[in-house]
Write a structure and sequence with these properties.
This protein is mainly β and 416 residues long. It contains 5 helices and 25 strands. A 10-stranded antiparallel sheet has the order 4-3-2-1-5-6-8-9-10-11. Strands 14-15-16-17-18-23-24-25 form an 8-stranded antiparallel β-barrel. Strands 7-12-13 form a 3-stranded mixed sheet, with no helix packed on it. A hairpin with a 2-residue loop joins strand 20 and strand 21. The longest helix has 13 residues. The chain starts with a helix and ends with a strand.
Length: 416
């Protein structure tokens, strides 16, 4: 088992080296402050907040790139992926996080120059999002050339009570009336929370379009992928008992179990346009098996069989260190919530014609383990992975315990 662990550790240390030279240039264009349009390639990243600047190349093969900020360009678009527009104006700076609310109404603003992300666009209005370290802001602009205006949402404390000021609703009501909104739309606005999903849906209704109409602006990349997996579980049980039941007959090593592993699951991309950060969840089945026999000097033997059947729910965070459409290298970590059923688990003593059975160890039906994965995705279809599960305890007797470690090798088939 140590041999497999060393291989996995070496691979995990080497994998990040692939990231240093990697980028994610996608076809697109920028519009300069002089009004010129430059066709080329934009480096789309896993932005947690809106970018202050972007890297741009005329050709994907160019080694040199140019950085463009709000002083250089007014607009940039990665074709069928993301669209951003420059905004120079006021930003509300009042916090909306419940843990950092102000006492009394806070109307603080600042003037800034930023890139707003287009998240819904139609003939009547355009909806923008701007995320900074403080909060998510949403803006709306009318028509083709209208200036963005921030949708107002404030939360503050007043005499110990939390006050929600939904100014954005009145702004949306006004737009709805202007663009022939009906009673159903007004009811929808009343139920619209200040978040991405609700505001995008309401903007679609004001624009009288649907989700498919957004594809030209926000792209149509799939964000969730289902997969099925088959592989091999190689496990070792051990304990700290003074008389270790999990060592071989001569006491020198622990026996290894080989058992199939199957799983189904889903990968959810944090940003489908970059595909680097992935939230993975899977439901898996495998077993850890042990059977050992010890001989006594009087000719008797003691056999101890144990089979642990496991159904596991495994949420993980996965990161593609090397990320292209045809090939990806990743690492992942998470927690496995294991539900186990046991068979065997008896000491069987034999001496001549005499056989005696005694109850075995006290086991837990629910326990945790912490898998570490590395893998490669080939042609968007085949995910070849290896996992190392460090020693995980599934039973205890005061200060004594039994634990299992494993290496799992498998292949996932990804359904598009």
């Amino acid at each position: 088992m140590n041999y497999f662990f060393k291989l996995l550790l070496i691979a995990a240390l080497i994998t990040p080296l692939f990231t240093f030279a990697q980028s994610n240039y996608k076809p697109g264009f920028v519009v300069t402050t002089k009004g010129d349009t430059l066709q080329g390639f934009i480096n789309i990243k896993e932005w947690n907040v809106n970018p202050k600047k972007i890297s741009f190349k005329i050709s994907r093969d160019n080694k040199e790139s140019r950085d463009f900020g709000t002083n250089d360009i007014t607009f940039f678009k990665a074709t069928n992926l993301e669209t951003y527009q420059r905004y120079i104006g006021l930003l509300n700076t009042d916090p909306t996080n419940i843990s950092s609310l102000s006492n009394g109404r806070n109307t603080d603003t600042k003037t800034d120059s930023v890139f707003l992300k287009v998240i819904q666009k139609g003939s009547n209005i355009t909806l923008f999002e701007y995320a900074d370290d403080l909060k998510n802001h949403y803006f709306v602009a009318e028509g083709k050339d209208g200036l963005p205006v921030e949708l107002v949402y404030r939360v503050y404390k007043n005499d110990g009570k939390t006050v929600n000021e939904n100014g954005y609703m009145q702004q949306l009501f006004t737009l709805s009336e202007k663009y022939n909104g009906n009673d159903a739309l007004k009811t929808r606005i009343e139920r619209t929370d200040y978040n991405f999903t609700d505001l995008v849906e309401t903007a679609r209704l004001i624009n009288h379009n649907d989700k498919k109409d957004d594809e030209s602006t926000t792209g149509k990349k799939q964000g969730t992928f289902l997969f099925a997996s088959a592989g091999l579980n190689i496990s070792t049980m051990s304990s700290n008992f003074a008389f270790d039941d999990f060592k071989s007959n001569d006491g020198s090593s622990t026996p290894t179990s080989f058992f199939p592993r199957i799983a189904i699951g889903a990968n959810v991309l944090a940003n489908p346009n970059t595909g680097k950060l992935v939230f993975r969840a899977q439901l898996a089945y495998t077993a850890n098996k042990y059977k050992g026999t010890k001989a006594y000097s009087d000719g008797g033997t003691r056999t101890f069989p144990l089979t642990q059947n496991n159904i596991s729910i495994i949420p993980q965070i996965l990161y593609n260190f090397y990320n292209t459409d045809s090939f990806k290298l990743y690492g992942a970590a998470g927690t496995s919530f294991n539900i186990s059923n046991y068979s065997g688990n008896k000491y069987i003593f034999k001496n001549g014609n005499i056989t005696k059975e005694v109850d075995g160890i006290i086991v837990q039906s629910r326990w945790f383990s912490f898998p570490l994965n590395i893998g490669a995705v080939i042609s968007k279809k085949f995910d070849i992975s290896a996992a190392y599960i460090p020693n995980a305890i599934f039973t205890r007797y005061n200060n004594d315990y039994v634990q299992v470690s494993a290496v799992q090798i498998g292949i996932n088939y990804i359904f598009n």
